[in-house]
């Protein structure tokens, strides 16, 4: 199964030679503050997208938004950030919030791996330049790749659900497939059926997460990369995910 959740940051910190203890403390604090700010930005973007794509800002009617807000609270994202993200999705025409738009970039990177990068930005030129620069740093380029993927809805259930029971019920509700990996059960749906299936399945099971993703076409996945190329692949993902405007990175490399 394609891992679509963001790996936001590396947690490592190197104390540079010649820095005093206080300088290192200030450096560490600044880095941690930057991490927190980046996490807040990404979660806010995802909440805005969930509101826009999931059917509005009413949590009682938009199960995708409600799930995203619940996860944000578990991550200790400030309520003001959450409320601001929801407000941004509900602003009318002509507002500054409306200028935040979802843009998807496509590219090819190390080893011929295909990437799809979802962003939310208020400055298209800035984001395009940053994404392009990340690809170029690893000898990649922006290039059409979405034809190598299928757009799917997905629903991840909480622990304790019985796979056979879930499978039968989910298929009856309209899910296309149900998979289990590492103790997690994930339902896949057509994009138009995501909310329908989620609203029904939540009556019997806890939904941990859900959304829309790009899943590689079965015959278009990259099965193997040598160690050096694999390292470059992951560094490119990290470089993209460190950008504030980037929400999610999908690839057709099967780990």
Automatic annotation (TrEMBL):
Pfam families according to UniProt: TACO1_YebC_N, Transcrip_reg
TACO1/YebC-like second and third domain boundaries: 102-253
Localization in the cell: Mitochondrion
Any Gene Ontology CC annotation: mitochondrion
Name this polypeptide is given: Putative transcriptional regulatory protein HAH1
Sequence similarity: Belongs to the TACO1 family.
Domain TACO1/YebC-like N-terminal, residue spans: 20-91
């Amino acid at each position: 199964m394609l891992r679509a959740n963001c790996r936001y940051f590396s947690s490592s910190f190197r104390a540079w030679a010649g820095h005093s203890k206080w300088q290192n403390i200030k450096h560490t604090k600044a880095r941690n503050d930057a991490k927190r700010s980046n996490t807040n930005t990404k979660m806010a973007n995802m909440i805005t997208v969930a509101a826009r794509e999931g059917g509005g800002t009413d949590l009682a009617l938009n199960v995708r938004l409600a799930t995203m807000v619940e996860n944000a609270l578990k991550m200790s994202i400030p309520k003001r950030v959450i409320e601001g993200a929801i407000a941004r999705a509900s602003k009318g025409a002509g507002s500054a919030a409306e200028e935040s738009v979802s843009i998807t970039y496509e590219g090819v990177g190390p080893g011929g791996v295909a990437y799809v990068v979802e962003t939310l930005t208020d400055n298209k030129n800035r984001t395009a330049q940053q994404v392009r620069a990340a690809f170029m740093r690893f000898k990649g380029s922006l290039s059409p790749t979405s034809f190598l993927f299928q757009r799917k809805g997905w629903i991840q259930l909480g622990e304790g659900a019985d796979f056979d029971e879930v499978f039968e019920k989910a298929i009856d509700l309209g899910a296309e497939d149900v998979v289990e990996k590492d103790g997690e059960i994930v339902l896949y749906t057509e994009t138009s059926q995501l909310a329908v299936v989620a609203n029904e399945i939540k009556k019997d099971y806890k939904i941990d997460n859900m959304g829309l993703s790009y899943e590689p076409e079965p015959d278009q996945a990259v099965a193997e990369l040598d160690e050096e190329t694999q390292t470059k692949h992951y560094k490119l993902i990290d470089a993209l995910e460190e950008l504030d405007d980037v929400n999610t990175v999908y690839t057709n490399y099967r780990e």
